[in-house]
Records
---
Amino acid sequence: MRVVTAAEMRQIDQTAIKQHGIPGIVLMENAGLRVVEVIEGILGDVRDQVFSIIVGKGNNGGDGLVVARHLLNRGAQVKVLLMADPADFQGDARVNLNIWQNMGQPVYQVNQVNGINIIKVALLNTSMVIDALYGTGFHGVVNEKVGRIIELINDSHIPVVAVDIPSGLEADTGQVNGPCIKADHTVTFGLPKIGLVVEPGASYTGQLHIVDISLPRALTEAGHLQKYLLTGETVARWLPPRQSTGHKGTYGRVLVVAGSRGMVGAARLTTRGTLRAGAGLVTLALPAGLQPVAAASLDEAMSLALPETPEGTLAIGAAGVILETCRQVDVLALGPGLSTHPETAAMVKSLLPELEVPTVLDADALNALVGDVDMLGEAKAPLIITPHPGEMARLLDLQVAEVQENRIDLALAAARKWRVVVVLKGARTIVASPNGNIYINPTGNPGMATGGSGDALTGIIAGLLGQGLNPEQAAAAGVYLHGRAGDLAAEQLGQVSLLAGDIISFLPDVFKELENSFVPVR
Ligand SMILES: NC(=O)C1=CN([C@@H]2O[C@H](COP(=O)(O)OP(=O)(O)OC[C@H]3O[C@@H](n4cnc5c(N)ncnc54)[C@H](O)[C@@H]3O)[C@@H](O)[C@H]2O)[C@@H](O)CC1
Ligand SMILES: [K+]
């Protein structure tokens, strides 16, 4: 599903109004009605429930006034708390304030001296707060008074439904620069805004409801370079159906180059991830001394012993064998657990310009490039890189905090600069493609922050590449499936005890889930 910036949403609204002739007041009416429907879905009958609606002077406040009217008509008690002078309301918001007042309903002005007390009293008897203070027009930080009101609401623990976006949240970045409404539900109009689906914004959004306000479909689907929220439906469409005539070669031959003394588990997890993602034939190549122990626990994969250093890591001579083997495979996964041994890093750097098969570069393969990272842009092979924020910071010579504050922009800049697909891991993993497409992944949970989780992901992406997904799709589908498997594993096992191997074990359930809910079209 496409996600948008505030400016893109405004453009869509304006085109609907000006070119399609849908009056803005109709969009606002639809928006308010949809919020009421979501409220009824949460509470059931709203009769005799008490609502406090915090209303700002912009169109978001206008939506709130529509909500107020329909709740009142359905028998609820509604308190409208205005954060502006009635005289400041304009346009469609003005129309809806007039209607409310023409109905003989009072408004309470909380922008005045005793505003805090008015809110305190209102909250003493409120079943639900509706946040219609700021929408996509908000930028920066709320003022001190609004900040106190937001904190009062958050501290009250009364359920909050945010209209379009929680007030205090930046729609484009998901950044929260001061007090921000912590919503239990957010009802957003037309398309999800980026800030609702990336962290920290996603944590303030609560359950996200994306509702139709009658924007023409041609507008919400338009454009070619897009940002998308990954959904199971999209991923299911990309997955190739198993053919009755298929054989091992149909589903891809994958070479996994991973592991070193002390990190043989990384190699095994990557290999098992590749197999469980559906690859036809998988070979694990690793330092010769580790081959017996790796092979002993991997019945379904082949193994290949590579030249090793005295420390049990890949030696420079491994490059030739890897390149030779690459002639017989469709995909390479390179990096998990290789170690930062200088000779191994040199081996990775000698290999990279020679590669021709689509390759997933992870972990120590990326660490090997630090200081020489523009090599990525000169590679012949289609590449997917899967850095976590620390690795991304090292690649770009930035602080981790800088990476985390600019996840989408940096992932896209790196993808374009090096012409690689970038998978920037962490909560709400970002996949950026050199053609400008961005995918935000909603699956996954903190239980997956455990050793080996990234190795499993590398394996899964390689397995999907083997089955013919293009690098952009393989990366995006891989992060979705990996996160969803982690979510199913956490439901059964809890987040605390979750192991990387569990993620792989739950992959079959995810594939079944996708098969059962969607009919792949391909
Ligand atoms: N026709 C449309 O464009 C539609 C808009 N809709 C609603 O309209 C919203 C956007 O409306 P607007 O563009 O009027 O803006 P908002 O209603 O989001 O609010 C912006 C208001 O907050 C003020 N503001 C911005 N940053 C501030 C800060 N840091 N501190 C204090 N005040 C600040 C602005 O000056 C402006 O008055 C959407 O989120 C949505 O809820 C919907 O009604 C659907 C149709
Ligand atoms: K809001």
Note: The domain at 2-223 is CATH 3.40.50.10260 (Rossmann fold).
---
Amino acid sequence: MHPYLKKLVQSFNISPSDQPKLEPLLEQVSAYLAQIEFISRNSRDGATRSERSDTPPLYLDGLATDDHSPEELVRLLQEQSQQYERQITQLAAVKLGLEDSLSLLNTTLDATNDGLVVFDKHHKVVAHNKLLTDFFGITSEEVEHSFVGRKLKEMLKATVYNDDTLLELIRFTNQNPAEKAQGLLHFKNGTYVECVSKPRFLDHRIVGRVWSLRDITDLKQSEEQARHQAYHDNLTGLPNRALLQEQMQRALKSAHHHEHRLAILFMDLDGFKYVNDSLGHDFGDLMLCHAAMRLKDCIREIDLLARYGGDEFIVVMDEVTSVKQVTELADRIIKELERPFFIRGESLYMTTSIGISLYPNDGDSAEGLIRDADMAMYHAKAKGRNNYQFFAQELAVLSSYRLSLRNKLKTAIEEEQFSLVYQPKVTTKENRIVGVEALIRWKLPDGQVIPPDEFISAAEDNGLILPISDWVFEEAIKQAKAWSDVAPSYFTVAVNMSARQFQQPDLVENLMALLHKYELPTRFIELEITESMVMEDVESAIRILARLRKLGIRIAIDDFGTGYSSLGYLKSLPIDCLKIDKRFVDELFKSKADRALVSTIIYLSHVMGVQVVAEGVETEEALKLLDDMTCDLIQGYYFSKPVAPDDITVMLANNDTSEDS
Ligand SMILES: Nc1nc2c(ncn2[C@@H]2O[C@@H]3COP(=O)(O)O[C@H]4[C@@H](O)[C@H](n5cnc6c(=O)[nH]c(N)nc65)O[C@@H]4COP(=O)(O)O[C@H]3[C@H]2O)c(=O)[nH]1
């Protein structure tokens, strides 16, 4: 105790029991006295009055205590002690605040879902939590040295091989202490951890760094799941169009690099629409899954199989060494799909048409190769389905021709480049005209005539078929009205209906409006629709046909025998006439099977009360045979080619118009 304090205790007679209470204060005072003693040496008058003796003079703020009475001294000391008490109270509050902050920090560190470690500016660990040690499988003691040297290597062992993200992050933060750094760590136990490192600032100065680690495995997994869904077809689980594009880009790059060849096989199931329409979409879905499985079995590990669209699949064959290898795969696929499918107790047959393009022969872009294979697939369909065709440049020429046709078609209607010709339909026995078929002709301003087979499908593709069909209908009805006065009552003008037109919801209303406009009785009009148009949606087709028929319009099925229809379904169709396709008529003398087929079609049609017309009859021989087979009507060059309306008017005038037809 300071000698003056001793003196003080003695002079104020402070009891020994009270002395401990005063002790903290006395200690403070003692420290203070030591301080003022130092100050006193530099007192205002500069005199050094602090010669060391047993009772050196006491100075308070430069005032020697010897100069003051004890009362004054006590007052001064009391003032000082009060000041100390205030300071102590303040300090205690600050300490409490600090303790509170520390406890808050510790609780926060433990409660957070992130692994945290806080460093000071000397890279010393200031704080960390348990999660951090869990992530790396280290102890709390090891954290101290964890981010440097050998320990860091140990710690990195927790992440997957070759994931040196953490190392990179540390390097980056050492070089850029003021920057935030962020990375994704992949741990051996499968977890994905997002790692963020931020500098700590105090008064605009960097005082250290905080590292936080967050387990984002769930997020990553749902991301993966979303990615899988975005890139795979829900039904078959196969890669979809988007993934195919990506994978093809990669395969093309690698093929270019390694000088490999690729083959793209574009497959379209034949008549799948029929399965869907007749057996339902659920059944169709099952069929697609089965087909996908079979296709998968046909390809090698390195090949890619994707679902491109409804019933379209694509195989990208990698490392192709020969064309034979490709044709073998195409054959295998065709055979594999030809085997019957047994689904829900039904056995079904399915075939496929395949178009093939080759890299680098046919191009080097994914889109181009797919387009070429698609074109070749259409060629395979045209060749009778259930076969494969390689892309050939001629197909591209054909396709660009179709494109140029489409552009020219746009002006054809406005410039009245279309006209109608009419081909008579006559009775097989007497060759009496019972009707005509209206056939469109397109003559370009330069005199070039383009046959309908060439431009109708192009017009179907770009939607121009609708205004063209409207024009044909109006023109044919106008002409039928002109003939209605001279023609017998059974005379009909048949008009070909386009697939798009058949799908128009206001088809019946539009047709009736036109008939009304030209005051033509409905019985003069016959609509020719193809089997495939009916098969698109059998139920709705039946509904529309029944409505038209009820209004008195005749219905004929055109090109019969070329589609997928069976004779069986004919009985459910509300039709008046069936036209046997020219292909069968051509084969009458060449193929016994076709002859038998034509005969059966005629017989069954009659049983069902449907009239039969044979198309494309060119010879007397064919006419006679068809007559023997009891075919009702014929149409073909034998009697007349399609001719101008005036020629028909003349024919009608010379026609036997007896009403017994
Ligand atoms: N070699 C040969 N050919 C014969 C003989 N008899 C008739 N033909 C031809 O066979 C086609 C019969 O018409 P389609 O089967 O309805 O087949 C038509 C029809 O599907 C479509 N088409 C024609 N006009 C129209 C139309 O106005 N609208 C729609 N949507 N399609 C039409 O174009 C197809 C072809 O029409 P066209 O070229 O006029 O060809 C016509 C006709 O000229 C014959 O004895 N020998």
Note: The first strand starts at residue 59 and ends at 60.
